[in-house]
Design goal:
Elements: H1 7-10, E1 19-23, E2 34-38, H2 60-68, H3 76-86, E3 87-90, E4 112-115, H4 124-133, E5 176-185, E6 191-200, E7 205-210, H5 220-230, E8 233-234, H6 236-242, E9 248-249, E10 273-274, E11 277-278
Parallel strand pairs: 3-4, 8-9
Antiparallel strand pairs: 1-2, 5-6, 6-7, 10-11
Amino acid sequence: MKSLVDVEDVANQEFDFIVIVLVVVRSDPCLDRRAGIGDAGKGLGGSSGINRFLWNKPARIYLDAFEELGNEGWNWDSFVKYSKRSERFVAPDHDLDVLKFDIGSHGTDGPIVTSFPPVISNLERPVLQVFNNLGIKNDPTDLRSTGDTLGVGTTPSTMNPADYFRSKNLALLANAYVTEIVTKKDENGKLIATGVKIIHGKEQNVYEVKTSKEVCLSAWAIKSPQLLELSGIGDSEVLTIAGIQVKLQLPGVGNNVQEHDFADLCYALKADGYDGYEF
């Protein structure tokens, strides 16, 4: 299978697990079956550390398509309802010609603080002008907040402008990698999570961390099913081949993953400023 890219050219393995994924594009015979790169951040916070902490939303038509396929209630309106409930947006007070936003599309009382950066690079204005000259519309709000993803614009990030930290209500253990979700069956035969096994520190020692309440699995679309499978939860045929004891037969785990394509365009500047602005 031919790879679309060279791993060394696109990612830093010190910060990125780098997952090779199969790309199937039926509409393009040139890209019918090839291997591509899926990023998975190694740092604290996972992939949030390599995706610029962006708070952006999918296209309205994309979410509405879920409901049209028969999934009642999975649509843009229901997504926005809960997205706004989780968000506390702090509006910017500077460079409002660049940092545009639609306050009605944001939440104001949720636990996740979102904001724009305290300063901009001054590249934004000439870049926006270039796209406008090419006929690509400048989003009158922060890009994606209203469900219209066509165009060019800005997007907030999950940073608190009071101190530019993300969260203070967590106890964090750095340099710890989860290898298994520890489970047991209750008196009704239901499988419940009781903790996790981790590899920690330079010595790569294995520890078991127990929980008094719940284990929240939030490890991206690739690492989440991988952890479930390593924990014996998944398709029994796959687990048996891998030599993993089956604890819960759940054949959907690890199947039908869908991810959006993303392409970065990088340019070297010829000058340190433009039109009176310093970069």
